[in-house]
Design a protein that fits this description.
single chain, alpha/beta
């Protein structure tokens, strides 16, 4: 576990009480993974930092499951049914492509297993309603794996905004752009490809986390020759604020986020969605006509740059051991709002997946 640097004076005064618990202090549980791709490898490594372990991996392809188990020192591999029937599996992490999330999570719920499912939780709002109904009927904990929301810098931002020191939020901007053309899961509409679901879920979630559900969404974009979104840009309207969303899979940017308030701003200058640098600027004289009276502090969280999933794994384990069916602050309503936002963006840009 990397040691995080101490908080600067003013951030500490406002936000130190909100610092999340250390992941290693969470309950230990046994995880099974459904899907044997790259993100499953990262989860398998990081979950150990939360005091838990992956005990089984399941895949539709036997060779992939066997190779994953050998490479990552997982003691059992097999089909989904094999994995879900095991008594040592306390929770399931679904790491398949988006198009298979619904099927895999429903199978886990039917087996009575709590589920952490990769973002986006499903392809669209219709699938989310079906999934939510099944989880609530079975009284099973299901959470979207938006790992960013459990990172320490998110807790610092929430405390800073809730303190009122910066005043009301007036504008938010969040972007996730990367040159990823040629990767089949992103290009393929059958696999629910495109920038919005794979990358845009991060800025959509961030904006919702700060401002809530928008009143209106206006989106424009550019499609690939296979009909998925290469670029989507959107403006979200709120009663007293606006936000700008951007996602693309054919260009590179800093992937920054900005929260502009009445008396200052919060900036995440690079890769806002992962362990990041946090900059806070207080303009204490902003309402007195003196914009030069500023105080700035920065905090760098990138000491955990090679990890980060352990925070969401720890939050899930704590909720599970507490008997909860939703993780506080990141439940079904939040997931539904974000999926509805992505639905609206895709609809206006012109992306329709097979079967929708």
């Amino acid at each position: 576990m990397s040691v995080l640097p101490p908080l600067p004076e003013r951030i500490a005064r406002v936000a130190s009480a909100e610092f999340p618990p250390q992941p290693q202090d969470s309950p230990s549980i046994g995880w099974a993974i459904l899907g044997a791709g790259g993100i499953a490898r990262k989860f398998t490594k990081d979950v150990k930092l939360a005091g838990s372990v992956v005990v089984a991996v399941g895949s539709r392809t036997a060779d992939k499951a066997e190779a994953f188990a050998a490479e990552n020192d997982v003691p059992f591999y097999g089909t989904y049914k094999d994995v879900l029937s095991r008594d040592d599996v306390d929770a399931v992490y679904v790491a398949t492509t988006h198009n298979f999330h619904l099927e895999a999570v429903l199978e886990a719920i039917a087996a009575g297993k709590p589920v952490l499912v990769e973002k986006p939780i499903v392809r669209n709002s219709a699938e989310l309603r079906r999934l939510r109904a099944a989880a609530e009927k079975a009284n099973v904990l299901v959470m979207e794996a938006m790992w960013s929301r459990f990172l320490p810098h998110y807790a610092m931002i929430r405390a800073l905004l809730d303190s009122g020191e910066l005043g009301k939020v007036r504008f938010v901007r969040a972007e996730f752009n990367a040159n990823l053309r040629g990767i089949d899961r992103l290009e393929n509409p059958e696999l629910a490809g495109g920038a919005a679901l794979d990358l845009g879920v991060y800025p959509a979630s961030f904006i919702h986390w700060v401002l809530g559900k928008p009143l209106t969404i206006t989106a424009r974009g550019r499609l690939t020759d296979r009909g998925v979104d290469a670029l989507a840009v959107a403006v979200f309207d709120y009663p007293e604020a606006h936000a700008v969303y951007e996602s693309s899979m054919d260009m590179a940017t800093a992937n920054a986020a900005l929260i502009s308030c009445e008396k200052g701003w919060i900036e995440l200058p690079f890769n806002f969605y992962r362990p990041s640098e946090l900059r806070v600027v207080w303009n204490d004289q902003a309402q007195k006509g003196s914009p030069s009276e500023r105080h700035e502090e920065a905090w760098d969280e990138t000491a955990i740059a090679d990890s980060g999933f352990e925070y969401q794994a720890a939050a899930f384990a704590r909720a599970l051991k507490a008997g909860l069916t939703e993780v506080p602050g990141h439940g079904w309503d939040e997931a539904a709002d974000v999926i509805a936002t992505l639905d609206a963006i895709r609809q206006q840009v012109g992306v329709v997946f097979p079967g929708e």
